[in-house]
Amino acid sequence: DTEVTQTPKHLVMGMTNKKSLKCEQHMGHRAMYWYKQKAKKPPELMFVYSYEKLSINESVPSRFSPECPNSSLLNLHLHALQPEDSALYLCASSQTSGVNEQFFGPGTRLTVL
Amino acid sequence: QKEVEQNSGPLSVPEGAIASLNCTYSDRGSQSFFWYRQYSGKSPELIMSIYSNGDKEDGRFTAQLNKASQYVSLLIRDSQPSDSATYLCAVSGGTSYGKLTFGQGTILTVHP
Prior knowledge:
By secondary structure, chain A is mostly beta strands.
């Protein structure tokens, strides 16, 4: 199984809502990543989890809160987002954070109204 | 100077031609180099990884790495309309240890 799954595929939320994005991988990878991608731009790294511990936070606003409940799951909790946070949110995984052949999930298309 | 730069594109080639995509990087400590393909509205898909100088071939794709010139390229032989996508060069290692640094991407169109 070489797949990273993400739910939901699409999400529309208001600025006062709280929602969560979910990511799952069953490749035995020990590094997982959250990226944000705006139209016509490359993916922009947000967070890196290595062995279920947060290892990199790229100065992401606190309205984005990551969580890694176990080695297969990664969540991104969203609260009080702004319209400019609308983007494609991508999850990726790799064998370890030092082996950076990363495999991406299909993404969640987020729209903030 | 951007950390990873790609030929700006867009690049248009006829079906059956060779498409050449280029990427330069600034961090001499970089160790791992990747090419991702991204179709419109989809997520990036890893198509090639290269770690040492020289060529690496996989089907119609050839990645070339020259660490002395800090240059990595992707050649697509016998280009097909289905190859039309954005190609992202990504680099890891050095100051980017533990993460990927992406170029801005090159849009490739293969016309019949």
